[in-house]
Amino acid sequence: MSQQQDLNLFVDNSIIPQKVYRDEPLFGVITHTQGTSPSWLINLLIENALYGTCVINHEKNQHRQLRSNVVVISFLNDFDFYEKDLKRNGIEVNDNQQFHFIDLFTDLFQKINTPESIVKIFDQLSKTIQNIPNKKTILIEGIEFLLSSTGITSIQLLNQINKLNKIADALFIITGADKELIDIQHANPSLPEFKTLDFIIRLLHRSNIVLGLRPLETGRAKDITGTLTISKGTIPFDSLVVSEKEYLFFVSRETTKLFFR
Amino acid sequence: MDHKRIKLDGQSKMSFRKRGEVLGGPNPRIPNAVPGRGGAPVTAPGIPGRAPLGPNVPGRVPPPRDISGTPLPPRGAGINPLKRTGMEPDLLANQVQNLSVEEIVKHPGVRPSSITSQATISTGSADLDKILGHQGLPVGSSYLLEESGTTDFSSVLMKSFASQGIVQNRLDPKNPNTHVIVLSSNQAWGKELPGVYKGSSRDIKRNRVIQNEQKLSVQNLLDTGDAPKPRASSSSNSEKKDNDLRIAWRYGLNDPKKQQATPLDNETYKDFNHQFDITSRLVPSPNANEITYIPLGTSFKPVIKQLETTIQRHKTKIIRLVIPSFLNPSMYPPPLATSQEALQFVHSLRSLTRKYSKTLAIAMSIPLELYPRDSLLIKQIESLSDAVFNLEPFNQEMLKFLEKAYQNQPTKVQHGLVHVYKVPHLSEKGQMLIMKSEFAFKNGKKKFEIEEWGIPVEDEGEPQQTTQNIDF
């Protein structure tokens, strides 16, 4: 097996470059499929956004300095899901004033039902997040689920994301992209498959960096979990350059390792 | 999976080990199992100590537990659920909140996961527990069982899941510890739950003989006290029988231990799981204190509310929620089967498992013939479930092939493949655990077995003698 590699997304060897928090906002999309759950990557992004470090990289012991607020919005998991893993990565989220978790998972459908109620929730959200001082990184997990479980259309949902994009310095949308979710047999705009496909395509056209997590095509392997593909989005950065490449990655209970392909 | 492989290896070597045990070591079970033993050592002195157990089945007597030091008394008053509902809910909630952690640790059907040390419960099938990775289903999670084709193997597992809960609930009649909720309008569902496997018919006969001998009856007293002659003859008989059986012993054929192959790996969690016999019924069938049916209407909203109130009512117990044949049109009216309704419901279920992560576990089966796996609906339900398994029964040709290949060992014929798509906790943390066609299942009278799958080699010239059980 080749040598273990550092995670970096840009040619300057950074994950989220400092420049993002100055004048070049980032819109990232992370797609994943069954078998390659993205929680490890989300945790690394949270850490990097908070401190600019990354536990699986070689210079992990470098001095940590808070640099941005992180808001995690999840439609699929509660706070407990993240807490333990972040703690293992050395982040005490309970004491951390810069970490905010917005739980849109617990009893979600007692709060929302109609597209209007979703719009209302996002209005509230953007107001709350706007009140957070300084730089902001927002990660949204599982938002595509709303397309198949409510009457909201893909355009309406993208408009909600826009509200958050305006107030965030870095925004990551984490979405499932299994082929079953986007495989349309009939071009019927009310089908959830159609909506999800439309949503993802439009999302990719707004992004400036895309990360894809996929299992190996050859099936399960003992020492490799899958591939992480990093590519440019459709909208280019002004000066930042995405380092396009493909990693092999391996997630086990104790460690996460990356290798070049 | 590694431990699975080790187990199989162990089995293949078993005959050697068994031989050593019978010849050399004093194995307490084997002499007991010979019915005609009649020897003085066990019967006569054994009577006084064992007599009080009377009609109970020996294996099922709950261990005497010292509960004097624990805060049981307040709960003792709450045994009757009717009384409970009458209490102030908040006050009750506070009371039980403090108890619940301790209570769950003490629960005989709970053991820590071998991976994450979360509390886990048995699914009612020891083999399924194994491929779940944690030695069971972690409390606070759900498992989805998909079934392709028109067979109904999944109902065996759904019913075992419920039965397991009821059996554990009855371990200590004063201290109910488990509640089963069934999402079904069919109130008779619980009447068809399988009973605990009591051994092969031969074992049952043996046990009956042993029990009769233990009973304090005139006949027995006569036997032990005044009639030495018949006893002597019977003991010599048994010795002779032992000798006759020696060859069979050698091949481990008549070894009751091997036949049972009980999965109860250690004594610490001896009530963690049981083996269920699908030809028997759980007697008496579960009553309203043990099982709650939640009927289906035209919306899932009231169902979720009812679920939550039922869970709150049984806060000190492990809750096993069973959802048999989810979205099956014979039970679910059309409005429930739309992707919006169904997904909102499954999402709410997931939310409930996280909210009641110390008590609730869910088993759900879904027929794939009606809702194919390559549809968005199933994919989303899978992504909301913690564990996903797929049963794919073999077609006729495959079954014929297997029957031919296992001509002499009809019990070895598997019924289908088991695909694993998600394993609780590990999959969500990013591990890739999709295992297609790695396991096969077979449904038998005494258990639902899942083993590693391999295509059998057709061996025409195999001698016939080895596998058949020869009666002397």
UniProtKB/TrEMBL annotation, chain A:
GO terms for biological process: tRNA wobble uridine modification. It comes from the Eukaryota. Pathway: tRNA modification; 5-methoxycarbonylmethyl-2-thiouridine-tRNA biosynthesis. GO terms for cellular component: elongator holoenzyme complex. InterPro entries: ELP6, P-loop_NTPase. Belongs to the ELP6 family. This is Elongator complex protein 6.
UniProtKB/TrEMBL annotation, chain B:
It holds the Pfam family PAXNEB. It is found in: Cytoplasm; Nucleus. Its main location: cytoplasm. Residues 1-41, 217-241 are annotated as: Disordered. Residues 1-10 have a biased composition (Basic and acidic residues). It comes from the Eukaryota. Coiled coil: none annotated. Keywords: Cytoplasm, Nucleus, tRNA processing. GO terms for cellular component: cytoplasm; elongator holoenzyme complex; transcription elongation factor complex. GO terms for biological process: tRNA wobble uridine modification. Pathway: tRNA modification; 5-methoxycarbonylmethyl-2-thiouridine-tRNA biosynthesis. CDD domains: Elp4. InterPro entries: Elongator_complex_protein_4, P-loop_NTPase. Belongs to the ELP4 family. This is Elongator complex protein 4. The gene is ELP4.
